[in-house]
Specification:
Blueprint: H1 2-23, E1 38-45, H2 49-54, E2 61-69, E3 78-84, H3 95-107, E4 111-116, H4 126-131, H5 135-149, E5 155-165, H6 167-174, H7 178-184, E6 193-197, E7 203-205, E8 215-220, H8 228-239, E9 245-250, E10 265-269, E11 281-283, E12 289-291, E13 296-298, E14 318-322, H9 324-342
Parallel strand pairs: 3-4, 3-5, 5-6, 6-8, 7-11, 8-9
Antiparallel strand pairs: 1-2, 2-4, 10-14, 11-12, 12-13
Length: 345
């Protein structure tokens, strides 16, 4: 009887100890000089573009996290891709999508760093993802990830690309700005390439003065959440910076067409935004926002309020999904692009 009690107490103590260990928050790191992999907490900053560009305001830090996975076979230093999620974050069934992208990259010999901009900020819903975090904060997260990866002994700091989906795609395009790069990157760092899948092109750089890194845009022909016509118009302005820019539009594809969970079908989601295409918000060189529709400048994008309130139909939803072929072709497109950028065999 005594032996049984001792065994039970020992088991309870073991469970308690390892339960506490598993619940302990990982300490944030400032560098990866020890070659860390897996879940990593690190520091980002939270300032508006206006404060960022003027070097004013306090650079309050925030802890965010990401997951770094490496190729199985590593010879020398490998290239890397920073992966930026949509406004829904890494929760729900879509979380597997980013893990799949990471595995695809790892098989190519590329390290993958999936950045979670939501979890530590307590953002738990699509609505919060659209309203409780700014473009400036997400761009700062991307550059914080770049700065961090540059310290990893197995990663080539001159071969780090950024790849974003929907809102993450918008961030990928913002990060191509030379001014933003100069404000956030350490030393001589810059992204070696930018990939944007169906970005929210309602928000754009007013004067695309870009770093010169190549850009790949992957768009859905029938996207009605991030209308393709809006992105194509933006692409023309980006091309004016004389950067290598490739645009691929996939037939019959809607928003998030590359997500396995909706490939081969189409599903109603969020709101149809096609009637809002006259709303464009341009990021000025001083970090303020300008809208020709409202004919005014604002310090923050949020100062324009709910810009879709009078142009969207509450009873008309957007659509996600598309042909399986579009999904598979998109994967092939970014694989081919990265092989060329990183000069992989």
């Amino acid at each position: 009887m005594r032996t049984s009690v001792k065994m039970i107490l020992a088991v309870l103590l073991w469970i308690s100890f390892f339960g506490l260990v598993s619940c302990t928050q990982q300490e944030p790191v400032s560098d990866l000089s020890l070659g860390q992999e897996g879940k990593i907490r690190f520091y980002s900053s939270c300032r508006s573009f206006k404060d960022l560009f003027s070097n004013k305001g306090t650079a309050d830090s925030v802890v965010i996290e990401g997951k770094l996975t490496m190729p199985e076979v590593i010879v020398g230093k490998v290239p890397a891709v920073i992966i930026l999620h949509t406004a829904t974050g890494l929760t729900g069934p879509g979380a597997e999508h980013y893990a799949e992208v990471a595995r695809t990259l790892n098989k190519m010999g590329i390290a993958a760093f999936v950045v979670d901009s939501h979890k530590t900020r307590n953002i738990k819903s699509l609505k919060d993802g659209l309203t409780q975090i700014t473009w400036a904060e997400r761009v700062a997260d991307a550059y914080a990830a770049l700065n961090l990866l540059s310290t990893h002994p197995k990663i080539d700091s001159q071969k780090v690309a950024v790849m974003g989906f929907a809102g993450g795609g918008t961030v990928s395009l913002f990060s191509a700005s030379k001014q933003i790069r100069n404000s956030l990157a350490l030393k001589d760092l810059k992204f070696s390439a930018h990939i944007a899948l169906y970005p929210d092109s309602f928000c754009q750089l007013k004067r695309p003065d870009l770093t010169g890194a190549p850009i790949l845009l992957l768009l859905g022909e029938k996207d009605n959440l991030a209308p393709v016509a809006k992105s194509l118009s933006y692409a023309k302005r980006l091309k004016s910076s004389a950067v290598p820019l490739k645009v691929v539009v996939f037939d019959e594809a809607y928003h998030a067409f590359d997500f396995a969970i909706v490939a081969g079908s189409k599903m109603p989601y969020f709101m149809d935004m096609t009637s809002c295409q006259d709303r464009t918000f341009l990021l000025n060189e001083d970090g303020t926002w300008y809208s020709a529709y409202y004919d005014r400048t604002a310090d923050r994008l949020a100062d324009f309020g709910d810009f879709t309130a009078d142009c969207r139909s509450v009873d008309k939803q957007g659509t996600i999904g598309g042909p399986v072929k579009a999904r598979m072709d998109a994967i092939k497109a970014y694989q081919s692009f990265l092989r060329e950028v990183f000069k992989l065999s």
